[in-house]
């Protein structure tokens, strides 16, 4: 189950941050399965901030505003496996990043994991 969550999170991070962004914002980017400092309460001295523009892809035609996200994923079977993920995302008209992540996690884990919280914010280091 953890392997499915890890794969889903890595895939989601890649999808979310590989779109060119407009304005600059710094967010925490981490996964509690890979770094225990990224738990429910983040250890900000152990995890550095990431400039979301470092994911900039200048070959793309469009530029979107970016924001930070904090996502909580739980084992749907009640085994108390909880994963926290923080990262950068984009604001695209008609696109809801949280809805996309919820459906992606559900699909990639065959329903074994569910997003129980997805919070977005639009200022530096707000996804603590």
Automatic annotation (TrEMBL):
Example GO biological process: sleep
Record's signal peptide: 1-24
Its membrane topology: Lipid-anchor; GPI-anchor
Location in or out of the cell: Membrane
Annotated keywords: Glycoprotein, GPI-anchor, Lipoprotein, Membrane, Signal, Transmembrane, Transmembrane helix
Superkingdom of origin organism: Eukaryota
InterPro entries: QVR-like, Sleep_regulator
GO annotations of cellular component type: side of membrane
Pfam families: QVR (PF17064)
Name of the protein: Protein sleepless
Originating organism: Diploptera punctata
């Amino acid at each position: 189950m953890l392997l499915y969550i890890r794969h889903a999170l890595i895939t989601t991070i890649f999808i979310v941050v590989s779109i060119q962004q407009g304005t600059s914002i710094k967010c925490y980017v981490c996964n509690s399965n890979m770094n225990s400092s990224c738990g429910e309460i983040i250890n900000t001295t152990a995890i550095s901030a990431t400039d979301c523009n470092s994911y900039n892809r200048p070959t793309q035609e469009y530029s979107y505003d970016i924001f930070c996200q904090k996502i909580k994923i739980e084992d749907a079977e009640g085994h108390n496996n909880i994963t926290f993920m923080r990262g950068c995302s984009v604001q695209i008209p008609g696109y809801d990043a949280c809805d996309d992540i919820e459906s992606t996690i559900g699909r990639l884990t065959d329903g074994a994991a569910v997003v129980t919280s997805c919070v977005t914010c639009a200022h530096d280091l707000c996804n603590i």
